[in-house]
Automatic annotation (TrEMBL):
Keywords from the named record: Oxidoreductase
Name used for this protein in its record: Luciferase
Luciferase-like domain sequence ranges: 7-303
Organism this protein belongs to: Pseudofrankia asymbiotica
Superkingdom to which the source organism belongs: Bacteria
Length: 335
């Protein structure tokens, strides 16, 4: 088995220069993919463009674009354009986002998110294949096609956690991006997705599973744990409840409750994962010295197709560099 690794960031990381620098280093270290997030800060698409112009090999992903923030037509134009700029290295990541972000930032009702996800992925795929726009609100208008050559080869990776959204990923996606999925639950979930996918006649290829742990390497293991714990606690206590529910549903409800109790006033700068919740941290994160991180990621290599490490926001460059070096794929390693 060839070891495949990717890099992802959180939407809270808004230092554009740092993101680009990390992507360039990731390519030098042999990572397969680099995912640029989008939430309520940076527009990811020009950042992807900037990285594309500074790299030549690494695959670049929008990780992920919200299906509420752009129309299917705009998403298709974006994907086709980035496909050109990236010389075929672009991956379109789409997700239903969260109620807090959709309603609190985009001023849009968060209704039937899985159905919205399916509808947008299907429309974008059709437009990229050269089909006319599917008009719903104004069916009497003349439907237009994308004014670029068909680019149906652009992979669409779907971010999904809930059962309905995961079903969408299995049926209409080319890849699955589950955030904060417990390592030991991942293989079984991926197997179930493949079974679901096998029943859909239009798909003959396996679904690419691209996910991984919150990852921090530091010469001081305690420092690395503190950073990983802060990021984990923030996601479980301050991101609208979606991640807390997901991790609880994976069998860690007691640990999630302990983390929430330990962080009554969540802070992105200091979070606590108490000893009683250590199993969750070990399932969602890889941390410690460089050697310890490299060893921990071996278990993830058995669970995901592309182990995509998640860098916490605001890390000093020295920590980013140490983490990327520690988690880089061993050159030419095969079973």
């Amino acid at each position: 088995m060839t070891v495949r690794r990717g890099v992802g960031l959180t939407p809270m990381e808004t230092r554009r220069d740092v993101i680009v620098r990390a992507a360039v280093l990731a390519e030098e270290l042999g990572y397969e993919s680099f995912a640029v997030p989008e939430g309520w800060g940076l527009d990811s698409t020009p950042v992807v463009t900037e990285i594309a112009l500074r790299t030549t090999r690494i695959r670049l992903a929008s990780g992920v674009l919200s299906v509420w923030g752009r129309t299917p037509a705009t998403l298709a134009m974006t994907a086709a354009t980035l496909h050109q700029i990236c010389a075929g290295r672009y991956l379109l990541g789409l997700g239903a986002s969260t109620k807090a972000l959709v309603e609190g930032f985009h001023d849009t009702p968060f209704e039937r998110p899985a159905a919205r996800l399916r509808d947008v992925v299907t429309q974008v795929r059709a437009l990229l294949a050269g089909e006319p726009a599917q008009l719903r609100r104004l069916p009497s208008a003349h439907p237009l096609r994308l004014g670029q050559p068909p680019t149906s080869e652009v992979p669409i990776w779907v971010a999904a956690l809930g059962p309905r959204a995961i079903q969408v990923a299995a049926e209409v996606g080319d890849g699955w991006i589950p955030a904060l999925m417990a390592r030991d639950r991942l293989a079984a979930a991926a197997e179930q997705l493949d079974k679901t996918r096998a029943t859909v006649a239009a798909h003959r290829t396996a679904l690419t599973v691209a996910t991984g742990p919150i990852t921090v390497a530091d010469e001081n293991p305690d420092t690395a744990r503190d950073i990983a714990a802060t990021c984990t606690a923030w996601y479980l206590t301050a991101m609208g409840g979606v991640y807390a529910r997901s991790v609880s549903d994976q069998g860690y409800a007691e640990e999630v409750n302990a983390i929430m109790a330990a962080n009554p006033r969540p802070s992105p700068r200091r979070g606590i994962v108490p000893a009683s919740a250590q199993p969750v941290l070990d399932q969602l994160a890889a941390y410690g010295t460089g050697d310890q991180v490299a060893e921990q990621l071996k278990a993830w290599d058995q669970a995901a197709d592309v182990v995509t490490i998640l860098l916490p926001p605001g890390l000093p460059w020295a920590t980013i560099e140490a983490t990327l070096v520690a988690a880089a794929p061993p050159a030419g390693l095969k079973d």
